[in-house]
């Protein structure tokens, strides 16, 4: 219904993406997204090993025959996971679309290129997008300050970042951060993007493999209910506001060091949030788009609704604004 350079390039029906999400981007959700005609990404590092990732990819294939991808997040780390082995597991599994994020994708590009894998690189600034374009990625996903997870350190919201990217980039890109409905999709297209990427909105779907209590917490939350942790460490992350994230903010604001919050931010605690359904168990990512999320639909209902709403807006309200004689006055 909405054909863009993005849908053409990746061979999907809808210009809507479910980006990688630690502990959330598992086969059930990704297959549901693929079956809806959108593009979903299994999160590689949610799997404990490259072999386990291969099993997860096979499991997803059992649930869909539509295209899907894998997210490979290569954040700088003191003891990094074996990124090259995860990359090779993706390639050997025959997956043809990868979402890279967290760092410059250059070291992985030759292997992806040789295997005919299309790379959608996610980043948070125009300069990083230009760099990724120069190293040969196929498309970009540009995360504004609104987003869940890592918004970078520039604090530029999508309303500025997306048109700035449109002016600078040659390859297609999608807008990410703060999108949850058809209004957002129509706006992203108007700003020059070829589609949208969503995280928080897809967490809150029937097929999302997290505890129902956490989904309800997102429904109940507003756009004000997030915290930016790790600002002082220049490794900012937007997470759900809870007792743990507020304590992290307070310790670091008072001059604390990473060691002082290490236990609070442990990934194992964050994972418990989803498994036990305890939103206070640890740190978990959530974006400002929480304020636009009011239900827990199936993925298919959600994607159909967003695309239909955007198409209605474009063909109806927006086209209508141009149809009358006022438009001639405005344009003349
Ligand atoms: C729970 C959660 C976990 C995430 N984990 C990752 C990740 O591991 N790698 C990544 O590239 N992005 C990750 N993200 C970011 C999303 O892929 C996406 O860029 C972001 O959610 C967009 O903002 P939105 O939540 O406002 O839609 C995560 C987001 C959420 C909500």
Task: Name the overall outline.
Answer: globular
Strand content: 5-15%
The helix content is 40-55%
Radius of gyration: 19 Å
- Can you name the CATH architecture of the largest domain? Alpha-Beta Barrel
Mean pLDDT metric: 96
Ligands bound to this protein structure: flavin mononucleotide
Overall structural domain count: 2
State the low-pLDDT regions, or none: none
Sheet of most strands: 8 strands, parallel, barrel
Report the CATH topology name of the largest domain. Answer: TIM Barrel
So, the CATH homologous superfamily of the largest domain?
A: Aldolase class I
Widest sheet: strand order?
1-2-3-4-5-6-7-8
Keywords: Flavoprotein, FMN, Monooxygenase, Oxidoreductase
GO molecular function, one term: monooxygenase activity
Protein name: Nitronate monooxygenase
Organism: Rhodococcus pseudokoreensis
Topology overview:
Elements: H1 5-10, E1 16-18, H2 27-36, E2 39-43, H3 50-63, E3 69-73, H4 83-92, E4 97-101, H5 109-114, E5 118-123, H6 126-134, E6 139-143, H7 158-168, E7 173-176, H8 182-191, E8 196-198, H9 200-203, H10 212-220, E9 226-229, E10 237-240, H11 243-253, H12 258-261, H13 267-277, H14 299-323, H15 325-331
Parallel strand pairs: 1-2, 1-8, 2-3, 3-4, 4-5, 5-6, 6-7, 7-8
Antiparallel strand pairs: 9-10
Pfam family, one: NMO
GO molecular function: monooxygenase activity
Protein name: Nitronate monooxygenase
């Amino acid at each position: 219904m909405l054909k863009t350079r993005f849908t053409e390039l990746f061979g999907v029906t809808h210009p809507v993406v479910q980006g990688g999400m630690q502990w959330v981007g598992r086969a059930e959700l990704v297959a549901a997204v693929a079956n809806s005609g959108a593009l979903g990404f299994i999160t590689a590092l949610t799997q404990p090993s490259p072999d386990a990732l291969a099993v997860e990819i096979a499991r997803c294939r059992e649930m869909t025959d539509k295209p899907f991808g894998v997210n490979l997040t290569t954040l700088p780390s003191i003891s990094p996971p074996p990124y090259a082995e995860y990359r090779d597991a993706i390639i050997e599994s025959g997956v043809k679309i990868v979402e890279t994020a967290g760092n410059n994708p250059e070291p992985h590009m030759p292997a992806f290129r040789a295997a005919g894998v299309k790379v959608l690189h996610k980043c948070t600034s125009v300069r990083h997008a230009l760099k990724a374009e120069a190293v040969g990625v196929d498309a970009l996903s540009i995360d504004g300050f609104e987003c869940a997870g890592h918004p970078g350190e520039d604090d530029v919201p999508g309303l500025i970042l997306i048109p700035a990217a449109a002016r600078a980039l040659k390859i297609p890109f999608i807008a990410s951060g703060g999108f949850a409905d058809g209004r957002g999709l129509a706006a992203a297209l108007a700003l020059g993007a070829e589609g949208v990427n969503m995280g928080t909105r897809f967490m809150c779907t029937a097929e999302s493999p997290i505890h129902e209590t956490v989904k309800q917490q997102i429904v109940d939350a507003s756009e004000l209910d997030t915290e930016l942790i790790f600002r002082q460490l220049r490794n900012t992350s937007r997470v759900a506001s809870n007792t743990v994230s507020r304590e992290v903010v307070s310790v670091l604001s008072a001059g604390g060091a990473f060691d002082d919050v290490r236990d609070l931010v442990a990934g194992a605690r964050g994972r418990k949030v989803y498994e036990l359904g305890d939103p206070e168990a640890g740190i978990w990512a959530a974006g400002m788009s929480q304020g636009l999320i009011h239900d827990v639909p199936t993925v298919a209902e959600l994607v159909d609704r967003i695309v239909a709403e955007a198409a209605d807006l474009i063909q109806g309200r927006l086209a209508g604004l141009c149809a009358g004689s006022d438009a001639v006055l405005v344009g003349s």
